[in-house]
């Protein structure tokens, strides 16, 4: 079935609805649904939080009897299995929709395509692939986790004009202006976790919370106390890689709302007790190089914990290692028009890089001005 311009317009609307769940659907995907009959929208819905109703259920509820004979535009293939809620395909069949268009199939290889098959078997016209690239981008973390078991990893770096991220003393706040920092809070808010290294925590004692105002939600969790509109339960988890559990129980990030995870070596379990007592979750991992936490194992753990998107906010040591291990999908680099001098620290600690042919190359995806700074988005 070829898609029409009208189809594209309604699917774009479903994707825009899905985007409203940007900061709250973790660990579920962001999904939107629009029901259209005789060219008019008769129902809309979007998934807001895990355990809450799915987009299709809300759209069907919104449409009532008008759903009969309607076309459903969904940004993700409707589910066909019992999760925390009954399967959406059953609801669509029962409501008597005549056509279902999904932007993409379910990225979970175990169920991919099954929802559309059930709908087709119920004599509903089905099609997949409209605005697929946009739908995949919206759920890049969920898609990657379903395909590989690992989260989508974005590393945020703030640097001066001369490529320095901190002074030789370790002082680094603030290189960029308030607009760029606000943009980072937006990235934090959409992430399931913020990953940092013990070096950054010891140098800066950061809060690592998302402080970003978002439109009001009906999510019951949001009604409680929150930091600038983000409930404690919606704060991204803070994750510190700290091989020898050097983190102090009095570190500010442990006391912040939401979870704090400390990833250290199996051999150092005893050192971790004081952090567990302070409320941190301890995860013991094998050693990789240099008796440090194996970062591949760390990312696998974050995938098992159902983290879709992870933002790295660390120093040159952890960033260098993540780059070398190929564990970062995207770098968001803020370039501030200031000079920190040649004694400052760089972006990536890569002591073994000697020949030009060993260099790491990235592709520039986007460049724009954010306040007084420039933001670059780069990928592998
Ligand atoms: N401009 C920016 O965007 C920005 C952002 C964040 C931080 N910073 C600055 O960066 C500086 C801190 O940088 P840093 O390089 O010292 O610290 P870091 O990269 O944040 O943390 C490095 C530490 O992580 C631990 N780690 C555990 N497993 C690791 C592994 N497999 N590979 C690498 N590290 C591992 C290591 O300590 P153990 O061996 O003890 O585990 C290591 O020393 C501070 O001055 C901070 O202000 C700047
Ligand atoms: Zn569903």
Describe this structure in words.
- The chain is α/β, with parallel strands linked by helices.
- The protein contains eleven helices and 16 strands.
- The chain has helices at 5-19, 55-63, 88-95, 114-121, 132-138, 140-148, 178-190, 198-204, 273-277, 295-304, 316-324; strands spanning 32-37, 40-46, 71-74, 99-102, 125-128, 152-160, 193-197, 226-227, 230-231, 237-241, 260-265, 281-285, 309-312, 330-336, 363-370, 373-379.
- Strands 12-11-10-7-13-6-14-16-15 form a nine-stranded mixed beta sheet, sandwiched between helices. A five-stranded mixed beta sheet has the order 2-1-3-4-5, with helices on both faces. A two-stranded antiparallel ribbon has the order 8-9.
- It is elongated and about 70 Å long.
- Residues 222-227 have low confidence and may be disordered.
- Residues 54, 56, 78-79, 88 line the site of zinc ion.
Count of individual domains: 2
Q: Would you state the CATH class of the largest domain?
A: Alpha Beta
Which ligands appear in the coordinates?
NADP nicotinamide-adenine-dinucleotide phosphate, zinc ion
Report the uncertain regions: 222-227
| Strand count | 16
Mean pLDDT: 93
Q: How would you write the strand order of the largest sheet?
A: 12-11-10-7-13-6-14-16-15
Q: Please report which band the strand proportion falls in: under 5%, 5-15%, 15-25%, 25-35%, 35-45% or over 45%.
A: 15-25%
Roughly how many Å apart are the termini? Answer: 35 Å
Largest sheet entry: 9 strands, mixed
How many H/I helices?
A: 11
User: What is the N-to-C order of secondary-structure elements (H for helix, E for strand)?
Assistant: HEEHEHEHEHHEHEHEEEEHEHEHEEE
- Helix fraction by DSSP (H/I, runs of at least 4): 25-40%
Rg calc: 23 Å
Shape summary: elongated
């Amino acid at each position: 079935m070829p898609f029409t311009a009208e189809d594209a317009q309604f699917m774009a609307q479903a994707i825009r609805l899905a985007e409203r769940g940007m900061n709250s659907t973790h660990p579920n995907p962001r999904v939107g649904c629009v029901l259209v009959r005789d060219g008019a929208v008769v129902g809309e819905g979007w998934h807001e939080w895990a355990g809450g109703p799915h987009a299709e259920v809300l759209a069907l509820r919104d449409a009532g009897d008008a759903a009969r004979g309607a076309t459903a535009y969904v940004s993700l293939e409707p589910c066909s299995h019992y999760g925390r809620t009954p399967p959406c395909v059953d609801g669509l069949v029962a409501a008597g929709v005549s056509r279902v268009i999904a932007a993409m199939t379910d990225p979970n290889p175990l169920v991919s395509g099954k929802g559309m098959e059930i709908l087709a078997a119920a004599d509903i016209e089905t099609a997949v692939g409209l605005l697929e690239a946009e739908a995949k981008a919206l759920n890049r973390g969920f898609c990657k986790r379903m395909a590989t078991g690992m989260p989508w990893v974005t590393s945020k770096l703030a640097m001066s004009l001369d490529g320095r991220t901190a002074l030789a003393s370790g002082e680094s706040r603030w290189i960029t202006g308030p607009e760029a920092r606000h943009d980072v809070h937006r990235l934090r808010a959409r992430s399931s976790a913020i990953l940092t290294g013990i070096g950054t925590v010891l140098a800066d004692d950061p809060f690592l919370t998302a402080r970003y105002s978002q439109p009001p939600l009906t999510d019951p969790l949001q009604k409680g106390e929150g930091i600038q509109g983000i409930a404690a339960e919606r704060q991204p988890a803070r994750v510190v890689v700290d091989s020898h559990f050097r983190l102090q129980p009095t570190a500010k990030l442990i006391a912040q709302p939401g979870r704090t995870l400390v990833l250290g070596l199996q051999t150092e379990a005893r050192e971790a007790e004081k952090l567990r007592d302070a409320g941190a979750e301890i995860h013991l991992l094998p050693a990789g190089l240099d008796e440090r936490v194996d970062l591949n194992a760390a990312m696998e753990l974050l995938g098992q914990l159902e983290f879709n998107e992870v933002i790295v906010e660390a120093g040159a040591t952890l960033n260098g290692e993540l780059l070398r291990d190929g564990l970062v999908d995207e770098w968001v680099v803020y370039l501030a028009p200031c000079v920190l001098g040649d004694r400052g620290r760089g972006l990536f600690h890569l002591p073994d890089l000697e020949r030009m042919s060993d260099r790491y190359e990235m592709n520039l995806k986007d460049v724009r001005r954010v306040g007084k700074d420039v933001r670059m988005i780069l990928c592998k």
